[in-house]
């Protein structure tokens, strides 16, 4: 398993970003969550069996999704595998 934490910046709140992330996740074998942060960024933590599957999901979100043009920056870091996470959800 490989897991990543990604912080998206730009106009990523109030534009359907979390819904777009959840929708994109349906096309990939990934699990995790996405949530708005108080500073106006969006945090996504996700995990997949292979790094190629995880990268394809992140690329889809960052380059092909309906909200891709709102992303101005991405800070990505590898994290330990997420425990007890099934599916992909929007955190409130």
Helix count equals: 2
Computed over alpha carbons, the radius of gyration is: 12 Å
Mean pLDDT score: 96
Structural class: alpha+beta
Strand content: 35-45%
Low-confidence stretches: none
Explain what the structure shows.
The protein has 92 residues and is of the alpha+beta class. The protein has a single domain (2-80), classed as 2-Layer Sandwich (Alpha-Beta Plaits), CATH 3.30.70.100. It contains 2 helices and 5 strands. The protein has helices at 17-25, 51-64; strands at 2-10, 30-36, 42-48, 71-79, 88-90. It has a 5-stranded mixed β-sheet, with helices on one face. A hairpin with a 5-residue loop joins strand 2 and strand 3. The longest helix is centred in the middle third of the chain and has 14 residues, at 51-64. The protein starts with a strand and ends with a strand. The model has no long low-confidence stretch (mean pLDDT 96).
